[in-house]
């Protein structure tokens, strides 16, 4: 029998021991690698395989006006989410869902038997009404959940529709500010996570995990809803009166570029945008439409000529015989026979085309088009809305004497309304061309703290303050003594310019009796707080002139807006020159403290109505100094006790 030596046994034991150490070392290393290196990944995968998530949409940020008025908000409207594997009786569940959600049983059955962790019933199960929500909560169906959802609501109806835009069924912005700032308004989704077994049944012994949604930021705009209401009212009246092809209005703060109001016709209700043709809501006319500006463009020619010191408005004169010949072409004044001999201030007041042609010739092609580009024409303004147009200018190589002449009075070039408003704002605010904007600041809805603010963005300094002051004075005289008289507002210094632009037809020629009539005005003229632009496309049943149609609208908007802004009336402006059949307004006298018997001797141009009894006048309406139409009624209040001077 073979004997094994002690040495051999020891060697074998050592070998087995070493192999064991190596084996268990490998196991330990593997366990350590799995525990410390792969642990998080494996836990994640295990969590994913056992957990189920129901998504919760965040609350979309509200949109507010500059004073905190709500322009867009959310109204709660839950949506249906089903977890098919938790439904034990699919047929019964489908029948009940179909009845409540007004859908076919077959479609509902397809949802509740779908091979998926969770299913959104779309679109029938989205944005439920109160009745639908109540019915589902009452039934408390197994595997059927109500997820928090909301509908976008616009309290002002169709006001500001093209600016605000609208959101879709998934609360995604589709147009206007809702689209432009969708990421900031939308926020981040939350979720409810629960654990289930391999068959999808909920494991009740494990707690659910809720991750709250992060709501979107609130947007405070530059819009003043009080002024917005005024322009909406005036556009509605214009549509009813003139039945135009379209209409638009813009109000801007010339010192910042902030948009105070903007609207156009035709319009729509954002909550029912599906009910109108896409061409209506896709065309935000104030920034999208392009057309020949007509005489409002003369402000740019005037600014360039004054800045280049090509003309003295008071001392230089121009003789207008009704037309001017340029390279064989006859360019006519709107007034047959012309205006005769005029100062250049009267050229501006009379909106005389030949006079502005001469200013263009004095400037020359390079200078005039240099200023046109400096004022922002030919490029986008940069307003924070999508769909902005650029307009069309002559290419320098295509500008001859005739093109130079027509450009000088606003014909042959194509611009957008927002370009005109910003250019004129620059001309009258000291020469500063700002980028227009609507988003003023963003607010965190949880903390109510401002996250970011928009500062006015200066794009260019075009002209000097001295030139700007000359322009303001000249345009104030246009309203008081020239073609803009219908925009005159008692108690406020208003400047402005009319515009009557021919429209180009489909064949390239100008249309007959089809114009875009406009007026751009600003006030107070010495220190403008707002610029108002109104354009009416092809008004019917009226002579198509900017002074006839658009100027009175702008005057009303300016007067009403300044009053709601708290701007006090003044008496230091230019007096209006009246033309037949216009009649000067009558200033209401101070009647308080006088005996009633003195009324006949004092005034005969006003009707008097009295309230109360007694010998003396103790109060009156309107107040003394107010200017009213001849024949207007003044109401007086009587008493037997004469009002003292102190009370007066």
Strand order of the largest sheet: 7-3-2-12-20-21
Which structural class do you get from the secondary structure elements? alpha+beta
Query: What's the CATH H-level superfamily name of the largest domain?
Result: DD-peptidase/beta-lactamase superfamily
CATH architectural group of the largest domain? 3-Layer(aba) Sandwich
Assign the CATH topology of the largest domain. Answer: Beta-lactamase
Strand proportion, as a percent range, falls in 15-25%
Q: Taking all residues together, what is the mean pLDDT?
A: 87
State Rg.
37 Å
End-to-end separation: 144 Å
Count up the domains.
4
Secondary structure tally, helices: 20
User: In one word, what is the shape?
Assistant: elongated
Number of strands: 30
User: In this structure, how is the largest beta sheet organized?
Assistant: 6 strands, mixed
Key terms for this structure?
six-stranded mixed beta sheet, alpha+beta, Beta-lactamase, five-stranded antiparallel beta sheet, Penicillin-binding protein 2a (Domain 2), 20 helices, 648 residues
Describe the 3D structure.
- The chain has 648 residues and is an alpha+beta fold.
- It has four domains: 6-37; 52-221, Alpha-Beta Complex (Penicillin-binding protein 2a (Domain 2)); 225-564, 3-Layer(aba) Sandwich (Beta-lactamase), CATH 3.40.710.10; 586-639, Trypsin Inhibitor V, Chain A.
- Strands 7-3-2-12-20-21 form a six-stranded mixed beta sheet, with no helix packed on it. It has a five-stranded antiparallel beta sheet with strand order 14-13-25-24-23, with helices on both faces. Strands 1-10-11 form a three-stranded antiparallel beta sheet.
